[in-house]
Specification:
Blueprint: H1 2-26, H2 28-64, E1 70-73, E2 87-88, H3 91-94, E3 101-113, E4 121-126, H4 129-136, E5 139-143, E6 151-155, H5 156-162, E7 169-172, E8 175-184, E9 191-193, H6 195-202, E10 206-207, E11 209-214, H7 220-230, E12 235-238, H8 239-244, H9 253-282, H10 284-292, H11 297-334, H12 342-368, H13 372-378
Helix pairs in contact: 1-11, 2-9, 2-11, 2-12, 9-12, 10-13, 11-12
Length: 379
């Protein structure tokens, strides 16, 4: 008896699958439109979260090339969207008196609008190259360090992206600066001026932060505590935290990603809802015949939801394929880093399939309530 029931259930399942696939093949254009809608939701989530994560990881990687353990600054000085130079450079000297401190380097981090840049902004570092390079294991791989005049050095990626050559001029602060050299590995801003040149351009004698390198064996937490005790009211960051929290340090990034997730869910749900609702309206006669042959309300709902599930799965596969292909193309053409996260990929899959099933609920309910007698009389 149990085996017979199982065989009957299996045959019913096979018939339902055949019915689902047949319905999707009967209206290929509408099916494709639904799949495209679901794929758009997946692309929104996967592509943009991959770009956001790639860029923050790139920032973290450049920050990790700092060998300094502590960044000394004022409150708000390390804001990514800010350009504050409110730290006295005299701290660079007095911090050397703190037990455990080996060396210090004052840096101006400046962000300025630039119409020619990819994101409309240009990030600059003003620093003394020799102590900075010695502290962080940097080197000039081509050319020479910049002087205190109108000269800059760039990292290798910046030179490659912009197709610059040594001696080319770039405009900063409405002035022309000559490219004197190329440094490696990338660290902080990709364009660096001398500290004096930056201070003269900004008409200040201060800096944004001071990199603090500790002596071998010194405990960063203990040194930070001593610095805070002697110079309270300042902000002391550990470079390891700047690396770990890179994503959290970009204002509004998490809100932006949450909005993308919501938009992706909305797009998937609406596309499937509209498509399935229109399809049900066109298939009233078919559904009426199906019910007159004994199909129950749950069976009709399962068929409609089955179609939505298949659309959701095909949309997921299409969306992921387009996202991965687009990321490779964008990375090749524009050198924008992508890093896809398993969490966001799974989130995109769940949202796409759930959105498809939810979008099909109302059309499925409408289909299950179709009166076969009324359909036969009217059509």
């Amino acid at each position: 008896m149990r085996r017979a029931s199982a065989r009957i259930a299996l045959r019913d399942g096979d018939r339902m699958v055949e019915l689902v696939l047949s319905n999707l093949r009967t209206r290929p254009f509408r099916t494709v439109i639904s799949i495209v809608g679901v794929a758009l939701g997946v692309i929104l989530i996967a592509l943009f979260t991959g770009l956001a994560r790639g860029m923050t990881d790139d920032m973290a990687k450049r920050a990790s090339n700092w060998k300094a353990e502590i960044v000394f600054t004022r409150p708000g000085g390390m804001a990514i969207t800010g350009s504050n130079a409110n730290v006295s450079t005299r701290y660079a000297e007095v911090l050397l008196d703190i037990e455990g401190v080996k060396s210090t380097v004052p840096v101006i981090r400046y962000i300025t609008p630039a119409s020619g840049e990819r994101w409309g902004i240009m990030q600059l570092d003003g620093l003394d190259w020799k102590p900075f390079a010695e502290m962080n294991g940097m080197e000039i791989v081509e050319g020479r360090p910049m002087n205190d005049g109108r000269e800059v050095i760039l990292d290798e990626r910046r030179m490659r992206e912009m197709k610059y050559k040594l001696g080319d001029k770039i405009q900063i602060f409405d002035r022309d600066y000559a490219i004197a050299g190329v440094f490696s590995p990338p660290s902080g801003a990709r364009i660096k001026l001398s500290l004096k040149s930056m201070q003269e351009a900004l008409e200040t004698d201060k800096c944004t932060f001071i990199l603090v390198k500790l002596k071998d064996g010194a405990d960063p937490a203990a040194v930070a505590k001593r610095i805070d005790a002697k110079y309270p009211g300042n902000t002391i960051n550990f470079t390891r935290d700047l690396i770990i929290d890179a994503e959290e340090r970009i204002p509004g990034l998490q809100t932006f990603l949450r909005v993308l997730v919501g938009l992706g869910a909305f797009v998937s749900t609406i596309f499937v809802l509209l498509s399935m609702y229109t399809t049900i309206t066109e298939r009233r006669k078919e559904i009426g015949i199906l019910k007159s042959l004994g199909a129950s309300k749950p069976f009709v709902i399962r068929v409609i939801e089955g179609e939505a599930f298949v659309i959701g799965m095909l949309g997921v596969l299409s969306g992921l394929a387009v996202s991965f292909g687009a990321s490779l193309l964008i990375e090749t053409l524009y050198s924008l880093p992508f890093r896809f996260s398993a969490f966001w990929i799974i989130t995109a899959i769940i949202i796409a399939i759930a959105g498809s099933l939810i979008g099909a609920l109302y059309p499925a309910w409408r289909a299950s309530n179709i009166d076969p007698v009324e359909v036969m009389l009217n059509e």
